[in-house]
Amino acid sequence: MNKFPLSHSGLLELAKKYPTPFYVYDEKGIRDNMRYFTKAFSIFPEFREYFAVKALPNPYILKILENEGCGGDCSSLPELMLCEKAGITGHRIMFTSNDTPAEEFRYAEKLGAIINLDDITHIDFLKDALGGRMPDTICFRYNPGPLKKGGNAIIGKPEEAKYGLTHDQMIESYKICKSLGVKHFGLHTMVASNELNPDFFVDTAKIVFDLVLEVQEKCGVNIEFVDLGGGVGIPYKPGQKKIDLDYVAEKIHALYKEKIIPAGLDPMAVCFECGRPITGPYGWLVTKAIHQKHIYREYIGCDASMADLMRPGMYGAYHEITVSGKEDLPKDHVYDVTGSLCENCDKFAVQRELPKIDEGDLLIIHDAGAHGRAMGFNYNGKLRAGELLLRTDGSVVQIRRAETIDDYFATLDFSGLSSFKA
Ligand SMILES: *Cc1c(COP(=O)(O)O)cnc(C)c1O
Fold it and tell me: Which residues are catalytic?
């Protein structure tokens, strides 16, 4: 857990200007974190990180990451457009989509994005969408399925996942694309989510490198980049350990020296499309305690809800909570910290030891900088929180306003209601 970057008095001032709830992101933290990532992987001839736009789809954040050398990983038309707005275009976009409409392939191609195909049938689909052409560069997403050796136990059950191509389809697909005149090739896989075991990523790289060699041998295709996906976890819970990226990079580099260099494939770029570990620890949801009730348990009711941050409610995810100004007080109370949805799972914390909370206290929900507001929704007529950015000079700017009732009603046309006969 990272310390919230504003003082208690600083936060009180901010909450006067921007009513709670709101998200705060720390520019310096995000930049430093990205530099750590880049430095760890600088042992490769070429390293690229495509930030997973879905984790924090805000163009101001994307512009900061672009400035740090990041690209963008997209899977929909609006995500492609966000990258475009933030100045991320061409091969700095990885389009890792699935079940993709033709229109989205066309837009990705127009931006010059690298298209990462999710199925063998998407070769013809893409070609048709582009009027009979293929792009110069193509990547395929590999689903290793029930692997006989290596990572199976660790990788979980890719054979139950909807993503990617089977081993035999991968080989076939590179052959087809070569015959269609595609010139440059990549190979992608993503088989983890929020994984904290560094060796997991080393095992994944081994599986990918072995397939790169097989593709070279069986298809006569030299893979120019591998994309190891996202899935790098962050320590949400106290006691969990951050992944040592230097260790991961060194171990993967050893495999690179053992397998890729002797095959004459050097330089081959090593890419990731991480979202969570880049911005996750540098975003906080700030919410005010507006109620407390004492029934069979002690409850603190907040002005934010699961509509702002659904991870705890949806899959019981743990997020650390601190109470602004009470960081050093003993945690001698046990609370369920709730939102206002008519769903009992709308709890930010269950039976959590916290200092005594009073109405008006500001609660800081940590590690909410990825898959936080992005996953929000409007169920129960809830309006999603806005987003603030703490700049490196200490100033705070609003990078997305909070939703209003007009936003909520924007898709309704009430004008027909008076003449509408029920
Ligand atoms: C979600 C996703 C990512 C990012 O995952 P993180 O856990 O945020 O790093 C990357 N690539 C693909 C294809 C994804 O679906």
Answer: 342
Predicted pLDDT at 159: 84
The pLDDT value given to residue 150: 42
How much distance in Å is there from the Cα of 169 to the middle of ligand 1?
A: 23
**Alpha-carbon gap, residue 373 to 233, rounded angstroms:** 18
Give the residue, by CA position, lying nearest to ligand 1 atom 5: 230
Please give the pLDDT value at position 259.
98
Q: Give pTM, 2 decimals.
A: 0.96
* CA 74 – ligand 1 centroid, Å: 10
Q: Which atom of ligand 1 is nearest to the CA of 194?
A: 7
Per-residue pLDDT, 154: 46
Residues 296/319, Cβ–Cβ less than 8 Å: no
Q: Is 52 in the pocket of ligand 1 (CB under 6 A)?
A: yes
Cβ of 279 closer than 6 Å to ligand 1, yes or no, is no
List 388's β-bridge partners, or say none. Answer: 24, 398
Separation of 402 CA from ligand 1 center, angstroms? 26
Biggest CA–CA distance in the chain, Å, is 76
Q: Quick check: CB of 94 below 6 Å from ligand 1? A: no
Q: Is the Cα dihedral 2, 319, 407, 411 positive or negative?
A: positive
Q: Ligand 1 center to residue 341 CA distance, Å?
A: 28
Assess whether the C-beta atom of 229 lies below 6 angstroms from ligand 1.
yes
Q: Which residues contact 26 (CB under 8 A, 6 or more apart)?
A: 2, 5, 282, 283, 390
**Predicted local distance difference test score (pLDDT) of residue 152:** 40
The residue ranges of the chain whose pLDDT is under 70 are 147-156
